[in-house]
Amino acid sequence: MDRWSGKFLALLLKATEGRLSLKLVLAASLVLFWIAFVLFVLTILFRTYQHLRSRYRASRRKLYDPAIEKVLMEEPLEDVIAALRPRRWGDASVVQEVLVDNMRYLTGPSFETLCAAAQRLRFVERSLARLKSRSKLRRGTAMEALGVMRAPQALVGIIAILDREPMDMKLVALRALAAIGNPATLPYFVKAADRLSPAMLPRLASLMLEFGPAARPWIRELINRHAQAFPPRIIEEILKETATDALRGGPA
Amino acid sequence: MSGLAPGLIYVTDVVLVYYLFIFNGVYLIVSLLAFQTVYRHLLRRIYGGYDQLSRSPLTPPISIIVPACNEEVGIALTINNLLHLDYMRYEVIVVNDGSRDRTLAELKQAFRLYPEEVEDAGRLSTRPVRQVYKSSTHHNLTVVDKENGGKSDALNAGLNVSLHPYFCCVDADVILEPDALQSVIQPIIESDRRVIAVGGIIRVANGCRVEKGRVVEVVMSTNPLVVFQIIEYFRAFLCGRTGFSRFNALMIISGAFGVFEKDPILAIGGYRPGTVGEDMDLVTRLHHHMRKQGDSDYAIKFVPDPVCWTEVPATLAVLSRQRRRWQKGCLEVLGQHDEMFLNPRYGALGMFAYPFILIFEGWGVFIELLGYVVFAWSCWRGTISTDFALAFFAAAFLCGMVLSLTGVLLGEMTPRPYPRYRQWFALTIYACLENFGYRQLTSVLRILGTWDYVFNLGSWGHMERQGLAQKK
Question: Which domains does chain B possess?
Fold first, then answer.
């Protein structure tokens, strides 16, 4: 037994001598130390950047928030534009954020005033240019903003995106088209359905409902083409929604 | 025989070194993938249109099932919080699992419950249901009063009365974020594949300022035991689960909050009564069921959004009970699904996640224990040099620290991080200190949990709560 274990030990010592593990451990410790250090520094940098950025943007936002009060008080468009005009380099994105955030919730004349201001201050053009950006974040936020601003001139750019972008961006594009609300784009929804998973089709129908009565024939076509994706519960909901539209006074 | 001992020690040394590096290396790779997932998810949040999801009538309706057993402290506020979520259509089903305190009375008083006839007993067999109540103040609230049968049984009773195609199991002591349902339903709606279950990040609520059933200010607890668990939660949810979900190899969705498609759950017979780790058991059985059906085009996903806040154990005794239960539950599930081990039919789950969890999280604790014993003995006998022992411990310490710091950084990236620099610095310090005492403590608790599993000891136990919802 002792002889066997002695041989075994000799073999093991020859293979490792305890040194292979030591080298590995030392090298790994060194690498791990630097990873830990980098993580520590990264966290500080990330945190500081986020903190400073949000503070700066909040302070800049405060300068433009009074413009919304002017809109609500129905002051002249020129005054609103003057209050919203970017005052410093880098403020354009802050102003656009103020505009888009408020346009989500406003309706009627206040919304129209903000739309006109967005056009005059060239935010629509700015977002249109960003549709071609290499950054996915910029393209996504640009589409979202164009949808909220209901910019009809964005239709061509957004439809082009439908063909080439991945699934998540396609949905952003479709949402933007639904927000713009031009019924001429409805065929693109039906066409897009061919490339979407069945699970997403009710969501697509939900977006089409935002077009109001004009969407009914297209929703019908969507359901006929992809009947398996629409269980009775969904059909029931769609019927309820379209009936609500009809009760609101839309054409039958 | 005396010659054999040093040989064994050398073998053990080598095993320990490779165990350490393989375990931490895999975890680091998974964490790197988690970074990418979290970053992409954060971008998606910016233009994701969550608000539209909550408004759309076609967004799938969800049944929230809340099993409650002796939860009189704060049950009314918790349910009130659940009734005010930002979601279009959902129902809340509270299952009073034979509480011996005033849980049912509190609910009756707060929501003006009235009894309702139930004709259909449902597909899943459960302990007898005494009565079903509806609320006269909230049309979407149902309370099921039944005899005590455990959490799994209560969830099955809730499933029997649920109306919607998806359900969400929620613990009675958690606080949900208002947009929690939107966050978890988004992958179900927008994925190319059929998503049958989704989980989210559970955050630690101890110390946070809670008002009217909402976490209004994120504050870190001053209890070191809680802070260690904060780091653990960040590491487990953000490094582990986010990374594993990339390969569709997630084996657990926390029992505190998870959304599931109802049909496959009914097909597998619901929750298995009597199991300790019912959450892990359910997800593993779901994988098993789907693969058995020949359907590999399904997904179980994890969203790196904080969806709910829970109170973690603040005392050693409660922590001990919880960890022993977790370990016992984990080993039970692993034992019941041993056919998954290195089975290519289960894809990444069988080839990677199951073996990883079995070796490193299930039984790895013994390798850790062996490490401490062998190193102590080797140093004492002089069979390994002091420089090697020191270097090994430095490497082990740094591995743990890197993983914890990764979790902390990922936690910073997700919404609602700890706002003060002081708190972040404390987290970093605790991430280093964790390796001196806390990690060893959890290892001991896991060994005790393994003992419970082997000798079939222990049960759910009781978790003393301060009553989160009532904190101001």
Answer: 1-48+191-461 (no CATH), 59-175 (3.90.550.10)
